[in-house]
Amino acid sequence: MNSVRGLLPASVISIQNSCFIYPACQKCLSRLILDSRRFNCLKCGCTGEAKDASYRYRLSLKVADTSDLFDITVFGSCLDPFFGVTAKNLQRCIQDFNQLSGETDTDASPGVLVQAVETCFIGKRFIFGV
C-alpha cells in the first residue's frame, strides 16, 4: 500500500450515496451489525446494546481536480461543522423523522437532508487530505 500522503484541491461533482452516517465500533471504527436490541462488530468482536451504538459520518464523493476524477470518502467528526451536529445526533433526528413520516427503511436519509447535503457540497471546492 502506498503510504505517500498529500493534499488534493478538488471540486465536488456528486454525492455517491445518500447514507451519510453508519453505526461504528468504538474500538476499530468498522460498521456494526445492528438488530433491534444488540450490536456486534464482525471485525473486533465488540458487542453491546443497540441503544448505546456510536455513529460516524461517512460521505462518499466524486471529485475533480484540473485533470482527473476521483472517488473520495470523508469519515468522522471533521464533518460535524458541515452538518451542525454530531453523527449520533443526526441519526436521532433521522430516526425521529422516519418514524413520524412512516418510513420503513431505517437507513434512509430524508430527501430534504440529501438535498441539503448536495447543496452544501456539489460545485464547491475543498482541499482533501489523501
TrEMBL record:
Keyword annotations from UniProtKB, A to Z: DNA-binding, Metal-binding, Zinc, Zinc-finger
GO terms, biological process: negative regulation of intrinsic apoptotic signaling pathway in response to DNA damage
GO terms assigned for molecular function: DNA binding; zinc ion binding
Start and end residues of each Replication factor A C-terminal domain: 10-95
Pfam families associated with the record: Rep_fac-A_C
One GO CC annotation: nucleus
Similarity comment text for this entry: Belongs to the replication factor A protein 1 family.
Protein name, per record: DDIAS protein
Organism: Brachypteracias leptosomus
Gene (UniProt): Ddias
